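Weekly sync, protein design subgroup
Attendees: M.S., D.O., the rotation student, P.L. (late)

Item 1: inverse folding check
M.S. brought a backbone from last month's batch and wanted to see whether the design step gives back something sensible before we order anything. D.O. pointed out we never logged the input encoding, so this time it goes straight into the notes. Structure tokens as presented (424 positions):
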């Protein structure tokens, strides 16, 4: 192919990618605009239930708008190029070949502008597209892989014999504990999270709030939010209830004096894409678990709602080394995903998945018409230095720990409406 033709093909590709990704929407991912992120239908997406009809209608309208935008931009490119070509040939009397080359140069300059001088928006959009594709391919591999036998306990069993739960978590990096909070507590927190998310989105739209102070840095932000939580009464009540069966398990895993490290809600709306497989923290030589994260379901989470996927026993140096192998074209990574049995983390309301933060896992694609909300909190072994987690700045230095809950948590349900007492 002649260089000029190659450049044109590249530009067309860039233009179509740019349009398909809807640049203004991609800007949201970079935190520049509060508008909704672009949507993409997975070919195997299941039809939403009748209750999701309103969602579906608005999604269809959004899709129509995107398609219109696509054709408008494509039309703009084509007519602009043609107009310039005609102006150069018929207007300025230039030779066809020269005029064609000039049009190509103009397109190249515009392409370079898009890539390098638009604040990284185009590059980010292209990267997002690549990550999305990677995540979908990983999902297909994991679907073919064997299913893991995982340890599942009731809250009652975990309370009666915490050592068994601690041992399962230590060996698998994963354990499920059912019924850690009651459906009533879960529903109250769900209503609070939904209201809080709406309030924060409105404040963001009105530029009264910054995203950094309210949302964590979650992977694949399209229709997905990591909403940082304060010690509001419904949050405090859920935490207190969950710690009743889990305190001994967490203490046995990361120390009786472990510090509260994260407190947030993961919200995944219909069409949230799958995340790529990742650990939350890297493996460090000679280390035991530094952080244990507890994800609590605030409603039932079935297979269509993008339950978290876990690969038990990958909180090890060997699994991290294989996953991070460089220069082999991703062969070891794929082999790991294909060989290791995985677990699809469906949950009933009030149930919890606990992980060692080094475990490989990912949020699934929400192919249902329903919002999925997981309340999550993590505790970090005292003295461990890690990157900061999803915790409001004001709570980071509050000194909340497993061994002083009597100062910040006890009687949470009785103190509904009162403001949080901060341990200093
Ligand atoms: O959404 C989920 O199920 C898990 C999210 C997650 O693992 C993450 O954001 O690190």
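Designed sequence read out in the meeting:
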């Amino acid at each position: 192919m002649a260089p000029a033709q190659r450049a044109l093909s590249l530009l067309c590709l860039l233009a179509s990618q740019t349009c398909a990704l809807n640049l203004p929407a991609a800007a949201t991912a970079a935190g520049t605009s509060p508008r909704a992120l672009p949507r993409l239908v997975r070919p195997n997406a299941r039809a939403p239930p009748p209750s999701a009809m309103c969602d579906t209608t608005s999604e269809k309208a959004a899709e129509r708008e995107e398609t219109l935008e696509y054709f408008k931009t494509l039309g703009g490119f084509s007519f602009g190029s043609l107009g310039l070509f005609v102006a150069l040939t018929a207007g300025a009397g230039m030779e066809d070949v020269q005029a064609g080359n000039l049009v190509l140069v103009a397109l190249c300059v515009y392409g370079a502008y898009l890539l390098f001088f638009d604040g990284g928006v185009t590059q980010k959009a292209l990267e997002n597209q690549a990550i999305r594709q990677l995540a979908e391919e990983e999902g297909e591999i994991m679907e073919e892989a064997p299913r893991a036998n995982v340890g599942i306990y009731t809250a009652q069993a975990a309370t009666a014999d915490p050592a068994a739960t601690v041992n399962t978590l230590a060996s698998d990096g994963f354990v499920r504990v059912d019924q850690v909070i009651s459906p009533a507590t879960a529903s109250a927190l769900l209503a609070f999270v939904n209201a809080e998310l709406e309030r924060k989105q409105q404040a963001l739209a009105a530029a009264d709030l910054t995203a950094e102070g309210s949302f964590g840095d979650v992977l694949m932000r399209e229709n997905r939010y990591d909403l940082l939580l304060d010690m509001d009464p419904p949050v405090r009540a859920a935490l207190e209830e969950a710690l009743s069966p889990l305190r001994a398990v967490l203490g046995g895993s990361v120390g009786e004096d472990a510090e509260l490290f994260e407190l947030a809600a993961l919200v995944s709306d219909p069409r949230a894409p799958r995340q790529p497989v990742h650990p939350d923290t890297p493996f460090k030589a000679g280390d035991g678990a530094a952080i244990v994260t507890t994800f609590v379901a605030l409603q039932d989470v079935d297979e269509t709602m993008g339950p978290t996927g876990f690969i038990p026993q990958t909180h090890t140096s060997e699994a991290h080394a294989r996953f991070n192998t460089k220069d082999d074209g991703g062969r070891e990574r794929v082999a790991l995903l294909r060989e290791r049995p995985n677990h699809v983390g469906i949950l009933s309301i009030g149930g919890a998945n606990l992980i060692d933060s080094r475990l490989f896992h990912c949020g699934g694609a929400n192919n249902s018409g329903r919002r999925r909300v997981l309340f999550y909190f993590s505790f970090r072994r005292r003295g461990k230095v890690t990157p900061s987690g999803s915790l409001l700045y004001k709570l980071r230095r509050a000194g909340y720990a497993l061994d002083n809950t009597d100062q910040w948590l006890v009687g949470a349900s009785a103190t509904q409406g009162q403001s949080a007492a901060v341990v200093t």
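Discussion: The pocket of 2-oxoglutaric acid is lined by residues 218-219, 266, 268, 275, 280, 308, 361, 363, 374 (CB under 6 Å). The first strand starts at residue 152 and ends at 154.
Action: P.L. to compare against the previous round before Friday.
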